[in-house]
């Protein structure tokens, strides 16, 4: 593993423990065993590190969506939705403790919002990507023509986010079997509606 990967791994650990708001680039560099100067050779700022943590160290929601877009026709709709719900649950369970501190201050949230939106990496991206995937399923004839895809994507993402919020609030790590069962129930409910 190179210095960049070690910095991202250290950032994920520090951000999980302290939240985004309380994590400093100095703390990340220290945890990685590097200087802050080296950190800035790889990353423009803390927001770029945060985005790298989300895309490289957390469950691969984006990669799963890429695969579903390519292989949707190879697997039944319900199975694809289970897979999507399960990875989304894992992603939110991992990212929620990091990202929640963004809401601790309006100024911090505004600054972060401006940076991620300018990089087209904000929380609207999963919604657009899931909507795009559902549109592919509709193109395959497996979703009704009149289905509201954006609302359906919002239901899936919102249900997973709510689950992660409650688990984080209760300070519990749900067992894999519970996550699998919940993803199955969510996918079954959503596929019936589509």
Automatic annotation (TrEMBL):
InterPro entries: Homeodomain-like_sf, HTH-type_TetR-like_transc_reg, HTH_TetR, Tet_transcr_reg_TetR-rel_C_sf
SUPFAM superfamilies the record matches: Homeodomain-like (SSF46689), Tetracyclin repressor-like, C-terminal domain (SSF48498)
Signal peptide feature range: none
Top-level division of the source organism's lineage: Bacteria
Keyword Oxidoreductase in record: no
Domain HTH tetR-type, residue spans: 1-61
Name this protein carries in UniProt: TetR family transcriptional regulator
Taxonomic lineage: Bacteria, Bacillati, Actinomycetota, Actinomycetes, Pseudonocardiales
């Amino acid at each position: 593993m190179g210095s960049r990967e070690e910095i991202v791994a250290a950032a994920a650990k520090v951000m999980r423990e302290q939240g985004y708001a309380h994590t400093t680039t100095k703390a990340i560099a220290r945890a990685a065993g590097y200087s802050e100067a080296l950190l800035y050779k790889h990353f423009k700022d803390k927001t770029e590190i945060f985005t790298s943590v989300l895309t490289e160290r957390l469950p691969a929601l984006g990669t799963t969506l890429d695969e579903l877009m390519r292989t949707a026709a190879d697997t039944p709709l319900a199975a694809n939705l289970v897979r999507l719900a399960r990875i989304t649950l894992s992603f939110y369970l991992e990212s929620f403790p990091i990202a929640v501190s963004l809401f601790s201050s309006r100024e911090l949230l505004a600054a972060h919002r401006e940076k991620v939106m300018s990089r087209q990496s904000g929380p609207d991206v999963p919604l657009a990507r899931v909507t795009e995937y559902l549109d592919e399923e509709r193109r395959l004839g497996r979703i009704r023509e009149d289905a509201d895809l954006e609302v359906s994507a919002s239901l899936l993402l919102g249900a997973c986010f709510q689950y992660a919020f409650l688990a984080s609030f209760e300070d519990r790590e749900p067992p894999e079997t519970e996550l699998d069962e919940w993803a199955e129930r969510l996918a079954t409910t959503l596929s019936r509606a589509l």
